[in-house]
Design a protein that fits this description.
This is HTH cro/C1-type domain-containing protein. InterPro entries: TPR-like_helical_dom_sf. By secondary structure, the protein is mostly helical. It folds into four domains: 1-120, no CATH class; 133-248, Serine Threonine Protein Phosphatase 5, Tetratricopeptide repeat; 250-343; 366-436, no CATH class. Helix content is 76%, strand content 0%. The longest helix has 24 residues, at 204-227. It is globular. Mean pLDDT is 85; it is low at 124-145.
């Protein structure tokens, strides 16, 4: 009877606060205070959900299968149960919606059991303005916009709220390049969750901008899962990006997602899908940017090479460079994989050397291009250089958590098996077997 009474009291409190138009985040705080609920449980109470409902919302939002036992264990930790990863917490953020953030799903007990790096990530999900009076005022203004936008989206989900979401998304992109996809996911999924919660009620004057940003955020989520080597989740989010882009008639984003899918197919070694998506990107009414068209041309060439079709690689590269003369650095790394597929890895090594000398190269990209360079070196018959470069890439992959880079390093190691007696190759093999 006590359990039923406690549940009834919680529901009474929730309905009263809801009737007073109190935001869900504040209802969760009240649930935590009044009923001594842990933060993850408090959010579930604030929404009026049982664990079964939470499971369903999590499955829909994340395309991931979990059960009620998993939710229970996440809510109990660290006093028993199982520790949720930052990705798990980000998944709950997406399921709960209503502007929930990862920081609101952990308390001091949780933080004591997180690593310093994880505590820093949880604490920097919001932008950290300089400690000046003007920036502090701006931060308060952002908070007010979000609070009003969630409490009454029909009136307050305006351009100001969308600007806050966009700032968060730009923050996630910066974090991705510096610290890796796992670090950027909580913010990215939080932006998607926030937009999802207000989109049904966004006024017409803001709707197009909101859907456009939702498409961009979903595409970023797809990219992040792709870098984590989570192919099914990446595909899900690319599909979500396509849907949002269709809803706001953003033809450019639709073509861009097709090109991204072609690139992901290359990661998986599926030449037919590489070619099919590249042709679709080039053949539809997508209004691709000049760079997008150039990249799609190179993707098509790679797909043709992978499916044993004749390709004039020089011609394809020339057309791509003419299409986007201001983006040669980006195109060089796309051209390099064309030369690898064409059986001329030495030319790929030169292009990767050029890309790796760029001063603005992100940490994550530095690791990935080194991994690709190691594959080219192995195919060129330079095992010591290949193994040394692969070791450098592996160190960065571990730092950024890039499963995609790790996969390419594994490909390089496979290509080096015939030189397994080389000390450098042996060192690489040991590093791969012992790294997390």
């Amino acid at each position: 009877m006590m359990a039923r009474s406690g549940k009834a009291e919680r529901e009474q409190v929730r309905r009263r606060l809801q009737a007073e138009r109190v935001p869900v985040a504040q209802i969760a705080v009240e649930m935590e205070r009044r009923f001594a609920a842990r933060p993850r449980t408090a959010w579930r109470y604030a929404l009026g959900w049982d664990q079964w409902k939470t499971v369903q919302a999590y499955r829909i939002a994340n395309a991931a299968a979990i059960d009620e036992t998993r939710i229970s264990k996440w809510e109990s930790w660290p006093h028993g149960g199982t520790r949720p990863s930052l990705e798990n917490l980000a998944g709950l953020v997406l399921a709960f919606g209503h502007g929930c953030t990862v920081a609101e799903l952990v308390d001091d007990d949780d933080l004591e059991h997180l690593s310093p790096a994880e505590r820093r990530l949880v604490g920097t999900l919001q932008p950290t303005p300089e400690p000046t009076a003007s920036m502090a005022d701006m931060s308060l203004e952002w908070a007010d916009r979000v609070r009003l936008g969630f409490s009454d989206p029909r009136r307050f989900a305006d351009a100001g709220l969308i600007d806050v979401f966009r700032l968060q998304l730009e923050t996630a992109k910066a974090v991705d390049g510096r610290s890796g996809a796992a670090a950027a996911l909580p913010t990215t999924l939080g932006v998607v969750a926030g937009l999802r919660s207000v989109l049904p009620d966004v006024p017409g004057r803001t709707q197009g901008t909101a859907f456009t940003l939702a498409a961009e955020a979903a595409e970023l989520a797809g990219w992040l899962f792709r870098d984590l080597a989570e192919g099914a989740k990446a595909a899900y989010w690319y599909d979500q990006a396509m849907e949002y882009a269709q809803l706001c008639e953003d033809a450019g984003m639709q073509g861009y997602v097709l090109m991204r899918k072609s690139q992901m197919a290359y990661d998986a070694g599926d030449g037919h899908r590489v070619l099919g998506f590249a042709r679709a990107a080039l053949g539809g009414p997508w209004q691709l940017t000049a760079l997008g068209q150039a990249e799609a041309i190179l993707q098509r060439a790679k797909g043709q090479l992978m499916t044993d079709q004749h390709v004039d690689v020089e011609n394809a590269i020339g057309r791509a460079r003419e299409m986007a003369p201001d983006h040669q650095a980006v195109l060089h790394v796309r051209e390099a994989t064309c030369w690898i597929e064409a059986g001329q890895p030495e030319r790929a090594v030169e292009l990767y050397d050029s890309a790796l000398s760029a001063p603005s190269l992100s940490t994550r990209d530095s690791g990935f291009f080194r991994a690709r360079r190691s594959v080219a070196l192995a195919r060129a018959g330079l095992p010591n250089d290949a193994a040394t470069t692969a070791l450098e890439a592996l160190d960065i992959a571990v730092h950024t958590g890039s499963g995609r880079t790790r996969r390419v390093v594994n490909d390089a190691a496979t290509g080096l098996l015939r030189w397994r007696s080389s000390p450098a190759v042996e060192q690489l093999s040991h590093a791969l077997s012992s790294s997390p």
